[in-house]
Amino acid sequence: MGHIEKMLRAHPEPAGSDGDTALACIKACFECAEVCTVCADACLAEPDMQHLVTCIRLNLDCADICAVTGRLFARPSPRDAETLQHQLEACARSCRSCGDECQKHAAQMAHCRICAEVCVRCAEACERMIGALVP
Amino acid sequence: MGHIEKMLRAHPEPAGSDGDTALACIKACFECAEVCTVCADACLAEPDMQHLVTCIRLNLDCADICAVTGRLFARPSPRDAETLQHQLEACARSCRSCGDECQKHAAQMAHCRICAEVCVRCAEACERMIGALVP
Amino acid sequence: MGHIEKMLRAHPEPAGSDGDTALACIKACFECAEVCTVCADACLAEPDMQHLVTCIRLNLDCADICAVTGRLFARPSPRDAETLQHQLEACARSCRSCGDECQKHAAQMAHCRICAEVCVRCAEACERMIGALVP
Amino acid sequence: MGHIEKMLRAHPEPAGSDGDTALACIKACFECAEVCTVCADACLAEPDMQHLVTCIRLNLDCADICAVTGRLFARPSPRDAETLQHQLEACARSCRSCGDECQKHAAQMAHCRICAEVCVRCAEACERMIGALVP
Predict the structure, then answer these.
(1) Domain holding A79: CATH number?
(2) DSSP 3-state helix, strand, coil percentages of chain D (rounded to 5)?
(3) Which pLDDT band holds residue C135 (cuts at 50, 70, 90)?
(4) Looking at the domain assignment, is residue B66 inside a domain?
(5) How far D107 CA lies from chain C's nearest CA (Å)?
(6) Chain C residue with minimum CA distance to A40
């Protein structure tokens, strides 16, 4: 069991029936934030990076949005559900558009290929979490 | 003219017809992020802070959401419009719920009164920006 | 191999001889940022949280400092070494003081016990990274 | 009087004799975080941006470091002084190296010229704050 999982179990306000979905979403968001941060830096270091500008921009936005979304869900106490839902929609959408852009360069650059996979997985985790919030 | 405004004018991709709306939104988001950060710390320093727990939680979330929303709009190059729209909706909603909670304590604590005002103004700025994005 | 590790290997500017130390530091910083975020929220949810105010404050600071430190090292391209060194010192020190405070409550609250462990490990990872930067 | 100033005055733990120095530091850090964020995006939008890669990297780091430093000082309750000192040193140094790099392009690009000025001012504000912390 990872540390985040242990922490959420030790939290005095236990997670509801959507605890597993939330845990998966938190992990996916933090992972995607980290991977997009590396991908932006890796794109900037490519010899021919002029055609990667859109990718860098989307990576930077996606890293910021995923980091804040992960952070919100790492605070499991009761919160404003509507805010969380909009934030998940922003995060899912950001991961989709970043993932689509990275996918275009997946054959040429391993960092974009890995980033595209992680973005898609994060989008799916956010979409499942939206489904859990809005019954 | 403030530094953000000068920077946006010096940006090689000039803002479109919604430039003033975007500038107002950026300023409001950064200001609200700062004010909510102080308010959370001020609530934690109140002698009887047990009844301020909800306020602290909403302040922390609102500070994070406003900071990332301000950051996204401080990057004026072309981006994914749908992501920006969802992020603005998250930010407007977060400001409304934080502002409502702070308003409950406005008569007792000046920091909550000021924070409530700043939150409402930021919500309005985000809502106007949503209107500019979605014609 | 985790995603961060794969991403760093796919980066066009390969890590130097301190690559393993840097990877451990990145992982420890992101983990500590997440765990401190949960711990602050868990402390706020404790029935008798008035005596946890110092712990909450240090958790919030440590979460922010670890998040930015992890982010800087997740950008492996050449950077200003002196900036990185000061940032590592801030992070190591923040983890030490947050870990010390959490340790005081470790017997009563599992979230503080886990957080104390994670903070110490992150401090050690940062200190090793300082040693790698400053030969 | 700006909102941050009003908030700090409304805080239940009044600032000490270094209150004005701290306020100037907070404002400078948040302003520099915003300006560096715009500058990174503006550099990415320049037609010949290959030679601006170092500038973009330093802008991104400086934006993150300034944002977290501003945030720490926007929480005026008692904290770990040694952590704050290291963080200020990281911030001052980051502003110096980003400002030096931006200055190289100041004649060609107004955004780099403004950013260089703002970075120097933030470095000075952080250095004064270090002087106030360490008597």
Answers:
(1) 1.20.1270.360
(2) 80, 0, 20
(3) low
(4) yes
(5) 23
(6) C75
Domain assignment present for residue A9? The answer is: no
> What residue numbers bound the domain in which D118 lies?
17-132
Task: Give the C-alpha separation, D61 to C80, whole Å.
Answer: 10
Per the CB < 8 A criterion, the answer to whether A125 and A88 are in contact is: no
Contact state of D77 with C94 under an 8 Å Cβ cutoff: no
What is the tens place of the pLDDT at every residue in D110-133? Answer: 999 999 999 999 999 999 999 998
Angle between helices C53-73 and D81-104 (to 10 degrees): 30
What single-letter amino acid sits at A92?
Answer: A
The answer to whether A4 and C115 have CB atoms below 8 angstroms apart is: no
DSSP code string of D11-45? SSS---TTHHHHHHHHHHHHHHHHHHHHHHHHHHT
| Nearest residue to D30 (alpha-carbon basis) of C115, B38, C15, A13 | B38
- Residue B56 included in any domain: yes
| Cross-chain Cβ contact A44/D50 below 8 Å | no
Confidence band for D135, pLDDT divided at 50, 70 and 90: low
ipTM rounded to 2 decimals: 0.96
CA A118 to CA B87: how far, in whole Å? 21
The SS3 call for residue B37 is helix
Chains C and D form CB pairs within 8 A to the count of 75
How many domains does chain C contain in total? 1
Structure tokens at B110: 């000046």
Cβ atoms of C38 and C82 within 8 Å: the answer is no
- Cβ-contact A66, A36 below 8 angstroms: yes
> In chain B, what percentage of residues exceed pLDDT 90?
87
Which chain D residues are closer than 8 Å to B7 by Cβ?
34-35, 38-39, 42, 111, 114-115
Residue D104: which pLDDT band, with cuts at 50, 70 and 90?
A: very high
- Dump pLDDT digits (tens) for A52-71: 999 999 999 999 999 999 99
Distance, in Å, from the CA atom of C31 to the CA atom of C2, rounded to the nearest integer, reads 13
